[in-house]
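Sample entry copied in:
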Amino acid sequence: MIDRSSTFTGQSEVQGDPHGEVFDLVGIGFGPANLALAIAIEEHNESSPGDEVRACFFERRTEFAWHPGMLLEGSTMQIAFPKDLVTFRNPTSSYSFFSYLHEHGRLVDFVNHQTFFPTRLEFQDYLQWAARRVGTEVRYDADIVAVEPLHNARGSADLFTIRAADGSVVHARTVVMGVGLRARVPSWATESSRCFHNHDFLFHLEEMPSPVHQRFVVVGAGQSAAEVVQYLHASYPQAEVHNVFGRFGYSPADDSPYANRIFDPEVVDELHSAPFEERERLLALHKGTNYAVVAPELIEALYAAEYRERVRGPRRLFMRRASEVLATTETSTGIEVEIRNSLDDSSDTLECDAVVLATGFEPTSLGSMLGDLAWNTPVPPVARDYRLELPADIAADVYLLGGTEKTHGLTASLLSNAAVRAGEVLSSVLERRLRGQSVERAEIGELDRIPSQHTYATSEAR
């Protein structure tokens, strides 16, 4: 039997490593996913005295931020505001977007605006408001470098040791990985002040040398690429903007009601239990709801701008369709970009001031933190409750809030399911704690009945 008695005892001393506090749960990364979980934990602790979850979250940034480099003026959310941090899990929560609007005196004005899609700037302000309010402990400017099983004298591990870059150590029975995505950078690109990913676009513009050639290249055909193209075209009225992409033109995002059901919370159940081949087929069919697609109204605005220039000149907006960048070369005054047209195999070189890589994101590798526990496989084994499968000698748990698209669907890295997923993870943590306690009591002859469901999750996941 695995002894879990040291797991939930606050600052108890841990055998083999007496240094560091002991938490029930440690979250690594504090973006929207773990923020939603922190709120769920706070609400559980307030409603269940005596059954509290002692949690701590670690974030490498010095403060909460959500894509601050892409808060372009006027850019709006592609996700409806009720898919906030809490509403789909607990509509009565004081952390809802409606509560945020009410506290800021804008509820009536927002309703009069008659939109489900606030600006990205306002939604970031909502997230920051929630992060400031939440009572669960958050440690900023803390870079976690390793998560290691802490084996006891019997050879099993019911705790993890979590090590930070500054040498500090804590322990936890449960680790929740919410480290987000990393920028995908093409092999031909060398990041610099003139060649950068759109993730920190606004910050890079501030650092970019003053334009000399009055020409920009944007690589990519998704929403971010189109937004960057529009922003550069408007902000640099003397400059050309060349958008390079492999397809013939932008593809419109499909946000129709039936297609949007791929983001419904209960669909996670269906997809996770489906055969791998069928899940892959469906995800490929519905990529147009999220990947390499652009809002139709933005497509129309860019087309109208290009057409106006064709009528009156001068031409400043160029869509380099069915094309690719072959190479870039930085010079003393800018960056040379070699572009190949795949239709006729011709190529030309542009002298530019900057290249913006709107080339998407990919899941952050967990190998540097989790080591062999991270599963170096295309589809890591992740249970329906988001628990990563671990070796039999490890009784502690790792949950993944991201990087689970292949097993849980398109909501894995989006805000759409953040609230419900937080409830499901918390429900799983509580139930597994009860199971551990019941096993201990069974050893001394005490029977214990484990509830079949907690109220902190809204789906039927177990």
Q: What stands out?
A: The longest strand covers residues 169-177. Residues 1-13, 446-462 have pLDDT under 50 and may be disordered. DSSP finds twelve helices and 17 strands in the chain.
